[in-house]
Design brief:
alpha+beta
Length: about 350
């Protein structure tokens, strides 16, 4: 694969974890209500405090559309709190927060076509980005194969054992899937037009693409369901991260209690030792990069597998409805791709 092609996002470059199982086929997002998302907060408002928490339902609107409705009432964007960004081509439920002194501005949300206020309460602090546990999805797949129910059940059963790959989806790479190209150009010292914020997004796209490449390496080498000595593993339930120093941890990985984390390269991230570290160096070298090239970014570690929750699948007259819960930062399209075995990029990339 050429470097230019390797920098483009394409689902076809990312192997599934269930290639042995047939997909349902079908189509998603034919109607707004075919894709439903409900935010799972990391904490519940206590009912008193300096901030008004507002739970809304949006139809065909971005989170930013809701924010701008409040800005039109005189709030600054910095005063408005959100925990996550939700799809446009969907029916979504999420929380926002505003200072109590601006409580009257909440009416602007109910006056916005496509937005309904479901609940209002109060809390001590502003809602912050990332203040959520995850999201619950209910997705209609239309035009499936005749035995789609059995196929979907088989895939979901296997994913319950091995987990779903935690790839970054197309939303991370821009409209044409090429933002990582500009990220690499920036790290090489080339001039790239755009604001400082946009340039940071380009580099973030490159970090995400390298993560995907690392995950592909693990899948191709039989390391997907394993942890190796030198890995930094994370507990799925409690979230703690630790260095794998013994092969005895393999059993917990096979039970999907822990999974390896892979780096989003940056100055605060430690390189792995052993084989995991060799794979990190291999992927960096593929693009002529080094850890130090990401010194301007803080960096992080992202878990390599998703443990699905609240899984259900029901037969419909024209297809299926699949439901599942994912931790924050994970993409439903990664799971849908395992189930459907088709390219879900075309419509998923229109989400914001």
């Amino acid at each position: 694969m050429s470097e230019a092609h390797a920098l483009d996002f394409s689902w076809t470059d990312l192997p599934t974890a269930t290639p042995n199982l047939a997909g349902t086929g079908g189509r998603i997002r034919e109607q707004l209500e075919d894709f439903r998302v409900v935010e799972i907060p990391s904490y519940q408002p206590v009912g008193k405090g300096s901030h008004l928490f507002i739970r809304i339902r949006k139809e065909g609107l971005t989170t930013r559309d809701a924010v701008l409705a409040l800005v039109s009432e005189g709030l600054s964007e910095n005063e408005i709190g959100v925990a996550g960004l939700k799809d446009k081509r969907a029916v979504t439920e999420q929380w926002l927060s505003i200072p109590n002194r601006h409580a009257a501005a909440a009416a602007a949300l109910d006056d916005t076509p496509g937005i309904t206020i479901l609940e209002q309460t109060r809390h001590r602090n502003k809602l912050g980005m990332g203040h959520l546990k995850g999201n619950r999805f209910s997705i209609r797949i239309r035009g499936c194969e005749e035995d789609a129910l059995e196929r979907a059940q088989a895939v979901l059963t296997q994913l319950g054992v091995i987990g779903s790959p935690n790839y970054f989806g197309p939303q991370r790479f821009g409209r044409f899937g090429r933002n990582a190209v500009d990220g690499l150009r920036l790290l090489r010292g080339e001039r790239v037009p755009g604001s400082h914020r946009l340039k940071r997004f380009f580099v973030a796209s490159l970090q995400s693409l390298l993560f995907n490449h690392l995950l592909v390496e693990r899948l191709n080498r039989g390391l997907y369901t394993r942890v190796a000595v030198g890995d930094w593993a994370r507990l799925h339930q409690r979230g703690g991260t630790f260095l794998v120093e013994s092969e005895d941890e393999a059993a917990r990985a096979e039970r999907l209690e822990i999974s390896a984390t892979l780096p989003l390269f940056g100055r605060k991230v430690k390189p792995s030792a052993g084989l995991p570290g060799a794979l990190e160096a291999l992927v960096l070298a593929k693009f002529g990069l080094r850890w130090v090239d990401f010194a301007s970014r803080r960096g992080d570690r992202r878990i390599s597998r998703i443990a699905l929750g609240e899984v259900a699948v029901t037969d419909e007259e024209d297809g299926l409805t699949v439901s599942f819960a994912l931790p924050k930062g994970s993409y439903a399209t990664c799971v849908l791709r395992e189930i459907m075995k088709v390219d879900v990029d075309a419509l998923a990339s229109q989400a914001t």
